[in-house]
């Protein structure tokens, strides 16, 4: 593993040589993986945002680079308290220097390319970014009249230009399924908030302003519904009401998202831009495979930083092999059932192949090895993978 880590840079450049070419699309995202126990010899493990919801476990942050098809070409491990956006500039510099790419389209989600970093990246030669606006940025465009809520419901993707930044192209999209989820979540949070506010307001004894303010502030911060509630403390009691206008404005943008890029229309159509942003789901698929489905980055048993980095790199290399295998086995999965009636998955396919064995046979002075005859299912998998025994 130590020798492997020394060669990581050279190996990744070799992996990226074919899929990453000038003007290519590069997908980048981050995840975290938690560890058990103490790691006194490593500075990688540090308390920060844990995407796995393990609050008492120290995480590490893993950044993954993929080509436009979702094939991994590079991985890096960061400290567990690293903010996602702070890794972007270094990763772009790595692509342009170590990978030798002078012109790239860098695709990252709204948490990676923030407003501050967007301005900093605007001056990088040969770089075009493709991302989505945060919710406050969408509200800002809405207030300035650059976008209108009804445009999100159009079947064709609507492209909008901002007079304040003419080279920036905005693509208005809406996901009905996400809209239902957001509305349901907001309704549930508001229900609990209203119940708690009524409980504070109906207290029999009057209280000091500081005490009530602390209770309400903590409640609204936890439920993230502060922008929907107007409140004050009068004569030792809480007085509050819902901001109906804020609720209506919020509901207008349920399921809505805005993809943007400075890449001109002659180089990338609006349909291609939105489809490219949605390709970040391929990186999420890679993370699911690395963390839970088959390869399982965790648990981590190594204690030193180099061994931890080598462990993550080794898992990425394993997924680099798994990625084309999954695509070759697609006909097997597509012809299978659905839900509980499904027979084939990647793990079950590999388990089937493990039953193929070689047995040593001895007959007097004659010795040879006998290979078991593959079953029909095993032979089909081998044929799809292009493997001959």
Describe the protein in words.
The chain is an alpha+beta fold and 389 residues long. The chain has three domains: 186 residues, Ribonuclease H-like superfamily/Ribonuclease H (Nucleotidyltransferase, domain 5); 76 residues; 47 residues, no CATH class. Helix content is 41%, strand content 21%. Strands 3-2-1-4-5-10-7-6 form an eight-stranded mixed beta sheet, sandwiched between helices. Strands 8-9 form a two-stranded antiparallel sheet. It has a two-stranded antiparallel sheet with strand order 11-12. β11 and β12 form a beta hairpin. α6 packs antiparallel against α7. The longest helix has 26 residues. It starts with a helix and ends with a helix.
Q: Which class best fits the helix and strand makeup?
A: alpha+beta
Strand content: 15-25%
**Unreliably modeled segments:** none
Helix content: 40-55%
- Could you name the CATH class of the largest domain? Alpha Beta
CATH architecture of the largest domain: 2-Layer Sandwich
CATH superfamily of the largest domain: Ribonuclease H-like superfamily/Ribonuclease H
Number of strand segments? 12
> First CA to last CA: what distance?
30 Å
Main pleated-sheet profile:
8 strands, mixed
Could you tell me the CATH topology label of the largest domain. Nucleotidyltransferase, domain 5
What is the C-alpha radius of gyration, as a whole number of Å?
Answer: 26 Å
Tell me the series of helices and strands, N- to C-terminal.
HHEEEHEHEHEEHHEEHEHHHHHEEH
As for the number of domains, it is 3
- Kindly report the spatial arrangement of strands forming the biggest sheet: 3-2-1-4-5-10-7-6
The average pLDDT is 89
Shape: globular
Compute the number of helices. 14
């Amino acid at each position: 593993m130590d020798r492997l880590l020394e060669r990581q840079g050279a190996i990744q450049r070799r992996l990226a040589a074919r899929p990453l070419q000038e003007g290519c699309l590069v997908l980048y995202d981050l995840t975290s993986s938690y560890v058990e126990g103490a790691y006194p010899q490593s500075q990688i493990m540090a308390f920060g945002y844990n995407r796995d919801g393990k609050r008492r476990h120290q995480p590490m942050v893993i950044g993954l680079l993929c080509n436009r098809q979702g094939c991994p070409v590079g991985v890096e491990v960061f400290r567990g308290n690293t903010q996602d956006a702070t890794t972007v500039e270094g990763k772009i510099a790595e692509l342009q220097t170590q990978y030798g790419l002078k012109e790239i389209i860098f695709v990252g989600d709204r948490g990676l390319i923030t407003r501050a970093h967007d301005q900093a990246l605007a001056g990088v030669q040969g770089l075009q970014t493709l991302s989505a606006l945060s919710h406050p940025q969408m509200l800002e465009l809405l207030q300035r009249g650059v976008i209108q809520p009804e445009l999100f419901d159009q079947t064709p993707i609507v492209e909008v230009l901002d007079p304040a930044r003419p080279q920036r192209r905005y693509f208005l999209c809406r996901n009905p399924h996400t809209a239902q989820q957001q509305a349901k979540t907001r309704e549930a949070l508001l229900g609990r908030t209203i119940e708690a506010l009524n409980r504070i307001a109906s207290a029999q004894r009057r209280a000091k302003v500081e005490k009530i303010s602390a209770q309400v502030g903590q409640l609204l911060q936890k439920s993230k519904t502060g922008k929907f509630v107007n409140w004050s403390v009068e004569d030792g009691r809480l007085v509050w009401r819902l901001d109906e206008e804020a609720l209506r404005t919020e509901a207008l943008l349920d399921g809505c998202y805005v993809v943007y890029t400075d890449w001109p229309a002659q180089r990338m159509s609006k349909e291609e831009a939105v489809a490219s942003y949605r390709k970040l789901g391929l990186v999420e698929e890679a993370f699911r495979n690395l963390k839970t489905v088959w390869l399982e980055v965790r648990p981590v048993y190594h204690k030193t930083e180099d061994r931890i980095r080598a462990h993550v790199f080794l898992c990425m290399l394993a997924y680099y092999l798994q990625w084309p295998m999954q695509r070759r086995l697609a006909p097997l999965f597509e012809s299978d059932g659905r839900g509980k009636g499904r027979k084939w998955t990647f793990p079950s396919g590999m388990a089937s192949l493990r039953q193929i064995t070689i047995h040593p046979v001895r007959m007097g002075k004659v010795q040879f090895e006998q290979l078991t005859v593959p079953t029909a299912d095993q032979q089909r998998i081998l044929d799809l993978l292009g493997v001959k025994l």
